[in-house]
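Box 3.1. Reading complex inputs
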Amino acid sequence: MITRNEILETNQMIDNANLDVRTITMGISLLDCADADIDKFNEKVYNKITTYAKDLVKVGDELAKEYGVPVVNKRISVTPIAIAAAGCKTDSYVSIAQTLDRAAKAVGVNFIGGFSALVQKGYTESDRKLIASIPEAMAVTDFVCSSVNIGTSRNGINMDAVKEMGEVIHKTAELTKDRECIGCAKLVVFCNAVEDNPFMAGAFHGVGEADCAINVGVSGPGVVKKALEEVRGEDFETLCETVKRTAFKITRVGQMIAREASKRLNVPFGIIDLSLAPTPAVGDSIAEIFQEMGLAEPGAPGTTAALALLNDNVKKGGVMASSYVGGLSGAFIPVSEDHGMIEAAAKGALTLEKLEAMTCVCSVGLDMIAVPGDTTPATLSGIIADEAAIGMVNNKTTAVRLIPVIDRGVGESVEFGGLLGYAPIMAVNKYSCEDFIARGGRIPAPIHSFKN
Amino acid sequence: MKKAVITVLGHDKVGIIARVCTFLSEANVNILDISQTIVGGYFDMVMVVDITGMTQDFDKAVDGLASIGEEMGLAIKMQHTEIFDAMHRI
């Protein structure tokens, strides 16, 4: 029998510490939509998505109501369009992005991911068309998210793609400059992208996945922070144990909701993503966890160690709580989506270089970082290359989601609204990497032995 | 047996338990356990109920209790027990 204290503890987490299920993401394969005629392909894609996902939002809302835990986002991920649309005879994939956008709006989800290409080793014709379509696709759609995988630990880094993505990010910013360069907030460049990630902007439904799957992202930085308040000043063993226990509890809720969603939608359960994902709300922040651990600001010496132990103990607690763990699983450190990170960046405590160091031990990478609009495409590519190298060498997923804010510079800010938040524009090292990026070709895969 | 947990939180006043219990009785919900305390004028009640024979849809009952809460200036929640079992029992 559940005790009164356990009931109150759970509801306390929900009511006062922002415990929620961050996203129920339905992965849908579009491989069977292939058609040489782009109009027919679009029609098949629209019909498949709107049929499979027609009850997704309803079921998410029902679960939230019946279990009393918010299910914040309902989303869809699809097969990377560069693969699904490879047979289409067309020059541009923008109409496919528009179809995805229409389908997302028809079923009521708030993002659809998978306008993606996997080019870690080389391009197909279809990959080239997709990447060339990204800027316009991001400008003419509202809910479509795009991602490009430019490297893996097994294949190395495709530096031609790194170069091109710097240009694509810049062009996307230009095309959406009247809307705070929002297009770039929906575009992410990966190294070691995962096939079952439920979180945006990087979600896509990998080709190794089933026809349809339910993946759930849990969250709860606020719950971890509240738990750490109880052990203020205690040693690291206690600190790690507290994070682990809390992560276990959070993940159990996610697991239960995922199982129930899978049952009600009659779609197989895929994975739980254990990520601690912040929102701009006070009390839902990774930065506040660092402060509770004893750092005056995120970015202070010790931050990388704090993030490493947080990330590791979230995984240790979460893995035991769920039968299938996948996705990105760890702590996210998006700047614009975390009020504590925003403040630290604004007062200069947190720099781009420190964030890069932190990405060696967090779950993803340089996420939602606004940079000056005059940052050159080559410099954007240089930042992508650095981040990809960290992922490649350390066998982890890294990502870059940068927003060059056109006509604005350091000291100014950009406001996206909603979950995407706002961000102070951060300084970028001003020395050129133009000649390095211009070389082209591939960086070979690293050696997988002699680890030191 | 299908069970749910009802929690009521807010300033104490006359008739809280009466209102909630009348609502539950009309919906054919059997009360299995009630624990209630008042700390500093703050009313705090946890109920475990049997909803096997409930004549209302679960989401309607959630809404019904929430609106009684609103009228009386309280927060009233009804949740399936699985969320608590999942979090606190292996």
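In summary: DSSP finds three helices and four strands in chain B.
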